[in-house]
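subagent[fold] <- orchestrator: predict structure for attached chain, return tokens only, no commentary.
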Amino acid sequence: MNRTIDTATARRMAEAGVIRGVSIVGQPGGWSVMLKTGRQEKPLGGQKTDRPRTWRSLDTLTEYLRKDLSIVRIDGIDATHHSSEDAHRPGRPDAAARMKRAHEAAAYDAWFRDQVDAGIEEADNRATQWISHEESVARMHRHLDLLEAKAKDKG
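subagent[fold] -> orchestrator:
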């Protein structure tokens, strides 16, 4: 039996109007959400675990409730056990690395698309000088012969 309610289920419950109350509970290092449905009250869980999800920032939590679950009314905030001792810990290094890779991939994608667009523009230009495949191969062989001769001279 699940101890928490996952985000997808909470979203469906909110859309169906089943959630009767929402409260925010402070914990060491962050905040969690309790969802009330009838007589039951369960915490909102993490994506891949059956443990309560926590947010370091109350602002981020309320923004999540508003945008992701369409919950705009909060019944209460209990800060009795909240402490910010862990709230200022650095972000997850794996998330930072993942974001860096995503930005690098986006930058490469933009560069690649610019290169393709420039190539298409050049190909469509009437002033572009085209050479035959045979001429291209002949130029490559001359270049390779030149490189081999230079290598022999050095060796």
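orchestrator: received. Logging for downstream: The chain has two domains: 7-78, 93-154. The mean pLDDT is 89.
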